[in-house]
Amino acid sequence: MSVRIDELFENLPLVLGVTDLTRILGKDRATVYRWLKKGEIPGVLVDTTWVIYRDEVRDYLLSRHNQAGGAPHASPSGDGQPEAESPSA
Predict the structure, then answer these.
(1) Domain 2-63, CATH
(2) Lower Cβ count inside 10 Å, N or C end of the chain?
(3) Is 80 helix (H, G, I), strand (E, B) or coil?
């Protein structure tokens, strides 16, 4: 997987703009801005301009590979362990 992501990012500048992210991620500007504001994508807001480092985004995407949105659901016991799936009948 990392080879494909590296290929995606290799010809991009070290600092990306929102337009670059919309193209890379296939999302519209509003979505990319929302993700940046929420911290879901790494970036730094300097005055009114987002500074988005290519390698930080690449590393972030690699760290999220095959992870479904967010942490696993905790078990009802509250022990912090993911809830086990019940066997099918």
Answers:
(1) 1.10.10
(2) C
(3) coil
List the chain domain ranges. Answer: 2-63
- Token pair, residue 81, equals 């362990």
Q: Give dist(CA 64, CA 60) in Å, integer.
A: 6
Q: How many residues does the chain have?
A: 89
The pTM is what?
Answer: 0.65
Using alpha carbons only, what angle is made at residue 19 by residues 15 and 20, rounded to the nearest 5 degrees? 50
Question: What is the token pair recorded at 73?
Answer: 């659901």
Tally the C-alpha atoms within 13 A of residue 24's C-alpha that lie toward its C-beta. Answer: 23
- Low pLDDT (below 50) residues in the chain: 70-89
Contact assessment for residue 12 and residue 57, using Cβ atoms and an 8 Å cutoff:
no
Q: Which helix (H) or strand (E) holds 46?
A: strand 44-46
**How far apart (Å, rounded) are the C-alpha atoms in residues 38 and 32?**
10
